[in-house]
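FAQ
Q: What does a multi-component entry look like?
A: The components come first, one per line:
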Amino acid sequence: MEATQLEQIVLENGASRNGIIAMLQEIQSRENYLSEDNLSYLSDRLDIPLIDLYGIASFYKSFSMTPVGDNIIHVCLGTACHVRGAEPILEEIERKLDIKAGETTPDNKFTLKTVNCLGACALGPIVLINGRYFGNTSMQKVTDILQQYGYIAEVAPETT
Amino acid sequence: MAKLSIEDLKNLRDTMYRKMTNEENPKIIVHMGTCGIASGAQEIYDTIVRELTQEKINVTLKTSGCAGLCSREPMITIQLPGKAPVKYADLNPKKVIKILNQHIRNGVPVADYALAIGSETTY
Amino acid sequence: MIKFKLNGLEVQVEEGTTLLEAAHFYGFPVPTLCYHEGLSNWGGCRLCIVELKQGNQSRIVSSCTYLAQNDLNVFTNSEKVVKIRKTIIETMLATVPTSKIVQDLASKYGVHRVRVAVENKDCLLCGLCTRMCIEQMDGKAIGLVGRGDSLKITTAFDKRSDTCRLCGGCIYICPACQIRCIGPNIEKDGPICNACANLEPPCLDQFENMMCYMDPCVACEIGTEKPVKSKL
Amino acid sequence: MGSKRTTIYVCMGTSCDARKSRRLQEAFSRALKDKGLHDEIDVSATSCLGYCDEGPNILIEPENLMYHNLNEEDVPFFIEEHFIKGNRLENYILAPGNGELKIPDMTDINFFKHQRLVVLRNRGRLEPDSIDEYIAMDGYAALSKVLEEYTPESIIVEIIDSGLRGRGGAGFPTGRKWQICRNAPGNEKYIVCNADEGDPGAFMDRSILESDPHAVIEGMIIGARAIGANQGFVYIRDEYPLAVQRIKKAIQQAEDYGLLGDHILGSDFSFTLKIVRGAGAFVCGEETALLASIEGKVGRPRQRPPFPVIKGLWRKPTNINNVETWANVPHIIRNGAKWFSNIGTAKSKGTKIFSLVGKVTNTGLVEVPMGITLREVIFDIGAGIPGDKKFKAVQIGGPSGGCLPDKMLDIPIDYDQLVQAGAMMGSGGLIVMDETTCMVDLAKYFTKFLYEESCGKCWSCREGLRRMLEILTKITEGKAKEEDLDTLRDLAEMTKYASMCGLGQTAANPVLSTLKYFEKEYILHVRYKRCPAKVCKALINFYVIPERCTGCMRCVAACPTGAITGPRSEPHNIDQSKCIKCRACYEICKFNAIEDVIVDAIVIK
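Then the predicted structure of the entire assembly, as tokens:
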């Protein structure tokens, strides 16, 4: 991100320590991750040790320190989703995309994340892709949902 | 908007209350909380807009938050002037079109899709 | 002055005194691990817990972070406190079995068994080194990063810190004590990355540009070999 | 009654009753007597006829005619016209009662019938983005009442008298909290709305903010007035984008109307409100962690005392209440403390909103008066467990709450009784579980959740949870010994007593409450390596029952690992070495041909 853009974010949030989380959120929402350069800029600009910023950024779950894929998948693991079988769905997505939760596919198409409750518990299990909710999901629906975002299913090996 | 005084607030309340309780047009409320949206309330809303813009029926279309019974979302409420509100549940665009035809245009609620009639009990 | 009861004794201390300071002043031994006089109070290790009793109600608090207040009724060694403290030491021993300080605590408090899986971690995440770095050395190099399973002590972005002066303060204060820093990028950054990812207990001789405060060196004293599991 | 020709049913539903339908009934009896018709026409009360907005309503049988909007003054005229002259009064006819009203009334549907709305009274009715509609429903009337008639002290007295307790967890009396904050030394004070609703399975705060954001704002302005604060913060979860958007807009509208800002409604009182978005940390629901987060720091709790009401944000007195608590305030002021304290039990006043989720037929948000039993909520409002499954437990109070079994369902919902039962009110998540939920697995789930959310400061919380998780994992894998249960208890005790903040102190509750009420299930796992709910993968295997399998290939297609094989129309086979026990086949099979068989099943009584 350009320094002028960063400076604008700093000024919009009071240019003080109090606004630091809002600044990080703004950077995160624009770039989808927090780069070392951006954090270094904030560190110098606001005179906060870089390690403090890194500590904050790594503490809160909505920040990411590595670039994410084009599509961000959130699987809700709230209690209501858990008792209705969210884990098998997460595992199914992990198998399909061949990544673990928190990782990004090598082609940079998908990032898979978990979230601890989206507050739409009545419709569990829930999968959220790029802000769109998929309620009452099941293992069978996973491929279908992923295909809407450009996932190409492998051709199933012939079974005898 | 000018800042209100206590007097202004009371007047505004009375004006708005009259306006809301003496609605001349049929009123449709689409319940659009997060759970409603997650189960497709936006699609319902869009369908209604699309259907109604083709015709010359005056309808007050509104949104609201969650109606409470999330497992039966998406839901809408229709209130014809002078009648009790009717809540519809488990909707899809197809059902909505039928409801618009029957309830809004002809004034007869679609009993098959309706969840309940009337309002909730408040203290 | 604040007046309260400490193990049944009427005591008085100045306002702003912690219960730990009061207990130590009056000669009651309260074990600590993440506490250090020269650093801010953290309250992480929970060894210094004491019981506050009031009528039928009782509450357990860490004495290093709890300020003395009038009319408290404090017990530093109640049955409940001792039992919980033993569980804390037991889990610490299982996590960092090589720490001399934890071994001593176990021996002092009669912890003779470890019922959870023994690991060979070298860090208690007590945060002493991070407070040393920022509060005493003005290093601002290391800190607690992440939370839950990913909590660790490291530098920003796990890279060699620009602000670190290799003072060794972090190593000096570490209670797990085998802290001989070998970072994640030992080949690239050299042995001192100040990431405190102390994986092996190497000898200090290898590091010419580092000041060692350890006299005597606990690591040398107990040898470089880690105790075998059967000792526990 | 049977000898009479006609009956007039007068609706005695709540809203008709409020419109004096009882007096209407009396007027009818009187008038019929006057006209000498009382032998032919009976007058009777009936439960709600629906059409509550049109009341008072009457139904005339057997004509099946419903009239509405009747006054007692109209009655003689009405009887004259309708019964004597035989004219239908079209103006008053509501709807032809066709004898079998196909659409049930709200008050006849179990889900709505038992609910009584205070905080959610505007749900589904108001446009959340319209301040005008909120005002039409008497919104901000409580604020003007406060500014005209109350001193800050008398607001606090009103809230204390109402008996309102914090809706976010432990249930500290709200008025007392305000009073402490008001009396705390210092001129600069803050108030905070805790909208960091982190409990998985609870979403009442989200729903309030989404459907009635102005109620929260109004409550906060009143609270600020009482406490003497001029600045407030709404700390809201970032996972609720719609709620963030709506409260933002609502604040903007309130500012435009001069309900926030300088000289509110022309008074000498000024108050501004700011939104702070959380960034995904459950522990920030804890007060001191929340404050640290607002100050732009890592959300780690600190030692209390000093309590935030004495030393909070930037070491200034700070009063924190959650969304539901704030949203109750305008209603209490408008209707009076007495009105509020008449609802509920001796020590828990008013209503409570629960999010009813999990294995229950009707899921959603329910607002019920305190004192109602859990059984009523789950079986009457929630309509019980779907399918032919049996109820097993209800988890109340979020991760820090407890799991209550069937025999505890008759305790009334009340702060103190729930704590006694080993659970807590919490923010109000009710997660219903049936026989297919494994309680050990559930304890493991919560422990894992809390371990990942622990800020990591306290050894007792971080390591206690990690070690408990280690043992629970061993149990679910069938590798645990019976001594491990004692270790589990010791670890739970350490976590509960030695941790600094509320998260740690309650983090062992899921383990402790399941150990207390479902110890048998633990023993089955440990001693007999059995998971009765058939959840723990290491303890179950899937087999095809050849007699039932029709060879439809559905499971073959569903199996993600290709473990199931078999030609069409012949019984399939599951290759145990490839099976990952994902249950996909079990759930898709239409012929109950797949059975999850327990390894080394030993039947015990």
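Q: Is there any commentary attached?
A: Sometimes. For this entry: The CA atoms of residues 146 and 459 of chain D lie 48 Å apart.
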